[in-house]
Amino acid sequence: MSSPMATPVFTARSMGLPALGFSTLLPMLAGSMGNIVLPALGVELAIPLASLQWVLVAYLLGITSLSVVAGRLGDRLGRRRLLLWGVVLFTLASLLCALAPSMGWLVAARALQGSGAACMLSLALAMVGRQVAPQRRGWGMGLLGTLSACGTALGPLMGGWLVDRLGWQAPFLLLVPLGLLALVLALTGLPVDEAGPRGDGVRLGSLLPLALLREAPLRDGLLGSALVASVMVLTLLIGPFYLHGMFGLSLTEVGLWISGGPLLAACTGLPAGWLVDRLGSGAVLRLGLGPMLLATLGLVMLPISWGPLGYLLPILLLTAGYALFQTANNGAVVGGAHERDRGAVAGLLTLARNLGQFGGAAGLGTLFSALVGSEMGGASAMTLRTGMQLSFVAAGLLLGLALWLNRRAG
């Protein structure tokens, strides 16, 4: 006798994963395209760089400030419901960005866009475990990691092409139909939430899952994620200055070189998930952190005679290791949480990653700036090389701490 649930299960499995995939891809695409929009925006609206940076900061603040609350609200009110509202907010805010008549309007719209992105990222991570069989949870996490890397890699390429041909509004307009597609997929493919709120209702105290931080494995996983994220953001900060100043590459060439890392991460995500399913999260975590440490050593030791390859090859190894680490760590942290808390834990994980990026930009970025001087564009080649080397020595120490945390937990 056929089961009446066969069709809904098939629909959720076949359309639910693409819905969660788009919910991961689009926020990363929106973030990475923001860098490309800024030069054209500054010329058209005559805005100085110090003010333009708020276009990026507002988006990051929107994601960071709401990640934990969005995850917990999903646990209490229904993850599908809140994901749908997040997609709607993200899509509407993208349209408001494209229609922005002033800088203030654009910054406010970007903050709203980041708020919608927080719901999408946190809840997609929390829901993926329900869309795949338990023994394939690592594969599901790897799929989201792959799409996240694709968004980061495609943003500069797609955004630059659109800005050159259609103006700075075009990247934001592109996100509108893509957001609507994500909404249709989510409405069609994700199973309806259970009726009624979960837990003890919605109160501020219940939204902030501080009690979860008493669990040592969770704390170590979150701290490890923040440490590794701080190292990865360093590559985005140093790369353009180092490749341009050291080897005289044009900015277009620099962009092509830098895109190699995210593209490799996109290719590594699914194999990383496969390894997690077979070897376990702990083994793959160490398998990722080891190459990352080796890559920082390569960045410090490889001779100048290797040219740009002396920078790119270690960066590729660093990125491949990061893809392994992120997939395994996501699986261990979110997969190890109780079902009722997975939204909150996914929010904490997103928050830890974003705080790591802020910390890396502020700490390691400031170190690099201090080493090469305030006028980075006029720094000598050897000064840039020394600054790069010492910065990645500090990055290696952070990775060593992340490896120690993993061994302590394992």
Give a structural overview.
The protein is mainly alpha-helical and 410 residues long. The chain folds into two domains: 14-187, MFS general substrate transporter like domains (Growth Hormone, Chain: A); 214-410, Growth Hormone, Chain: A. It is 83% helix and 0% strand. The chain is built from 14 helices and no strands. It has helices spanning 6-45, 49-77, 79-98, 103-131, 137-166, 170-189, 204-207, 216-247, 251-258, 260-279, 281-301, 309-335, 342-372, 381-409. α10 (260-279) runs antiparallel to α11 (281-301) and α11 (281-301) packs antiparallel against α12 (309-335). It starts with 5 loop residues before the first helix and ends with a helix.
Shape: globular
Sheet with the most strands? Answer: none
What is the CATH class name of the largest domain? Mainly Alpha
- Amino-to-carboxy terminus distance: 47 Å
Share of helix, binned:
over 70%
User: Could you say which structural class the secondary elements and strand pairing correspond to?
Assistant: mainly alpha
Instruction: Specify the CATH architecture of the largest domain.
Output: Up-down Bundle
Write down the overall mean pLDDT.
79
- Give a count of the beta strands, DSSP E runs of length 2 or more: 0
Q: Rg, please? A: 21 Å
**Unreliable sequence segments:** 1-12
By CATH, the topology of the largest domain is Growth Hormone, Chain: A
Name some characteristics of this structure.
about 400 residues, mainly alpha, Growth Hormone, Chain: A, disordered N terminus
SSE diagram, text form:
Layout: H1 6-45, H2 49-77, H3 79-98, H4 103-131, H5 137-166, H6 170-189, H7 204-207, H8 216-247, H9 251-258, H10 260-279, H11 281-301, H12 309-335, H13 342-372, H14 381-409
Helix pairs in contact: 1-2, 1-4, 1-5, 1-6, 2-3, 2-4, 2-13, 3-4, 3-6, 4-5, 4-13, 5-10, 5-12, 8-9, 8-12, 8-13, 8-14, 10-11, 10-12, 11-12, 11-14, 12-13, 13-14
